[in-house]
């Protein structure tokens, strides 16, 4: 029998070097490692260990290391949890027309009464007014450039009539007390019905006329992003750019991705990497930094990697985030990406940027590059998490060449809503972008109206007309149990038995006992956002209810990581529990495939990918009813939806009883109604959480802002 050595000791002060952190280290809420484990856990653990005599090896997780100190973009958590029950909201809360953000101030909605006094709206600047005049002349040239890039001649863009109609009302519509709900419209306009007099008689029973689908133009879309799976992945953002980029290409668009050239990238996933541009000088602190640009394919995606040659050594530090000057690193990258577009003569139809790291892109575009002649692009800004906003001092303006502090410190531009002496990059992105999305309709509403905006609520209200939520998809080429190279046995809805072979493989790999118990798992960052207290409780509760528990995760926070290392040591000899502290993409596939139930008890969750991936693999999600979790998981027992649409278990209150109410039902169903549980697995697998629908939603948004 294999015996596992003792888990290595991880000092509490240490942290892992795993990239699983999309922001700054966050202090852990006091978790007491000395807190006695639940009585059920104690008895189960010792008993089963004695039963099987099986000992698990240390599976080679990255040993904890200290990250660099945190930067200044971390904002205090205005509201980490939701105390009151949430209403059910199925649709995007708000969107409406917006013009090109030639002047962010002038395109804001009428200020609310509270803001009227301090938010007086200045008139458009002369530069902006003049630039409007030349737009018509340069637009055609820019569009032609884009078509050349994409190799596609294009008829005029088809725009949703819904949004067009809304657009006509720009500036004239007083802000409603509550923003209207918004559903992304279909892009292809449906054909008009034939006039009645020309309709064929019914008795001829001819087949209905074929819908006349208007050919839509292909777009040239450039993603400017700090992350891209799998080469530079920290969290869901990386998956989104990877999956959405592919989907947009499948839909006939030309897509390019610009990201930093990190030394820590997975270069084994980049094909044909070559230096293609060696003379890029990016303005910085009144001078310029010399950069090279590389081109390569990441699983077919066309990617440009920017490498600065400077003593700041921005992207050669062994990790994507976690440095005191993160804000300056990414402010520089954003400027470099725009400078590259400008110098290389690229005029994309759409620039799609992501999170605070690239929030300055629309600011640069409309304040620097548009006056220089880059009139064509429109900007979509996607916020993957409101918690990290990039809040910093005025120095960043000086560094980046945004040299009018008084102008940018205006409340309607980049001034932080709470600290009048700070610049908020994410706020700048919201103000200047042509459209702002976040990653689920529910989270869009929570951020704007339920205190999850971490101080940006007033800004979202002002800009609610260009704000909405689109649920992320997952890449079905990567997350597909029928072809997944990381799992030993492939399976699908009709061949679901294969999943049990993967369950056995997971047990073999982690040296768990082979028995009839359900495997409950957690995969993700061990961040307070993910509900650390409830993850811990899920472990003890599962063992007490006769289940097995697997955790794969890590934290850059030494205290949190140390706590879970302590738990790992505590359960080292338990044949029903395994904690893998670290980041392991390949093991994650096996955990998704081999588990029966996956817990996602987040305090807040912008979208969440783990529940979507779990469902794809027939693993039943047990989630808290927040953000994207609420949008994607339908409770088996408490839902008005038909039985065949239910796909998991949901709880509302962020406490142990709440978690138990859902996890207990899931485990009970597994044991007592295996047929029901199996149907639930199939329901979950049948859902389409690919990029198909979100891809269409983003196309509609692109079409809409192109028309402005
Ligand atoms: P977030 O973006 O907040 O980190 P998401 O649920 O949106 O959370 O995305 C998490 C992604 O990262 C998923 O693809 C998940 O499988 C992956 N992931 C997170 N932690 C780990 C880990 N320790 N090992 C492997 N994959 C991980």
List keywords for this structure.
alpha/beta, binds adenosine-5'-diphosphate, 21 helices, 708 residues, 17 strands, six-stranded parallel sheet, single chain, nine-stranded mixed sheet
Characterise the protein shown here.
- This protein has 708 residues and is of the alpha/beta class.
- Helix content is 33%, strand content 14%.
- The chain has 21 helices and 17 strands.
- The chain has helices spanning 39-52, 113-116, 126-150, 161-168, 236-250, 326-343, 360-372, 395-400, 405-408, 425-432, 441-449, 457-462, 498-510, 532-544, 558-570, 585-594, 610-616, 627-632, 656-672, 674-686, 692-706; strands spanning 220-224, 254-260, 270-284, 287-298, 301-309, 350-354, 378-383, 391-392, 423-424, 435-438, 467-469, 519-525, 548-554, 577-581, 597-600, 620-624, 649-651.
- The strands form three sheets. A nine-stranded mixed beta sheet has the order 3-4-5-2-1-6-7-10-11, sandwiched between helices. It has a six-stranded parallel beta sheet with strand order 14-13-12-15-16-17, sandwiched between helices. It has a two-stranded antiparallel ribbon with strand order 8-9.
- The longest helix has 25 residues, at 126-150.
- The model is unreliable at 9-54 and 57-202 (pLDDT under 50).
- Bound molecules: adenosine-5'-diphosphate.
- Residues 20, 22, 235-236, 239, 523-525, 552-554, 583-585, 588, 607-610 line the site of adenosine-5'-diphosphate.
